[in-house]
Description:
By secondary structure, this protein is α+β, with helices and mostly antiparallel strands. It is built from 7 helices and 3 strands, in the order αβααβααβαα.
Amino acid sequence: xxxxxEVQAAELERTFIAIKPDGVQRGLIxxxxxxxxxxxxxxxxxxxxxxxxxxAKQHYHDLKERPFFDxxxxxxxxxxxxxxxxxxxxxxxxxxxxxxATDPQKSEPGTIRGDLxxxxx
Length: 121
């Protein structure tokens, strides 16, 4: 019995998911949470925060040489962010698939970005 619990615990994954300021402003929090819950994943942590520009620069440090870096940092620090930790078997792979491609125009229908992203430009 203890061994079975250890095996189950070992199969559980955790992943970080953030709803950025535009998603919060557009009222998409419950829609995004529902998509994870419908798959049986467990929300084990949630926090509302308003990142500073310095936090955004640290978060996106790997992109600092890219031409869009300053705009990205301005965007992340422009309003509240919902930071979540989800738990479940396969939640890392499923989370990536559910969110969709980084470029919303390349995201499949049925993904969060494919269904909910606003394409600017």
